Amino acid sequence: MKVYFHVCIETWTNTYLIVNDDPNVMEAIIVDPSQITNRLIDLIEGNGYKLVGILITHNHAHHIDGLRTLTKIYNATVYAADSETYGMNSCILNGDGMTRIANFNVEFFSIPGHSPDSMVYKIGDILFTGDTLISGETGSTSSQYSKKLLCGKIKDKLFKLPNRTLIFPGHGTPGTIESEKQFNMDLM
What we know:
This protein is an alpha/beta fold. The protein has helices spanning 38-46, 61-64, 67-73, 144-158, 177-183; strands at 2-8, 13-20, 27-31, 50-55, 77-80, 90-92, 97-101, 104-110, 119-123, 126-130, 133-134, 137-138, 166-169, 175-176.
């Protein structure tokens, strides 16, 4: 597995391209297609990957601005919890579970709080957290109730994962479960 990082400078939003470069597979997944650039397309096309999945962590415009472009170019399945992000080739995610994409086991966790449709995806030892969990903080919320819900779900679902689990957030730098347990002020 390879993970390519791409940042949209206009909104400081992270997009990730996850590829299975096994010569028998050569498939890719994109997480939060905020902006589709020539560099991102070149990574897919130049390496001969087939884009088969698009994972949406939540339906905020700066995380999905490139979704329409991707679905015009590729016949990839969109995985999301909000019906407004669906196209003709989509998969509705509810609750927690697992699916298989690009020959990877992709676990998904519903963690509302930042938004009602917030999803976190785990592939191998990497969590793609969107705005649910950002290095050193949690995503913004609209009320104290939402903040409490968000923090409780993070502790109940994500903090049970191994400390070495990497966190690739929707904004900012990567972290680990261990560093969030020790230094995230929102979760203490």
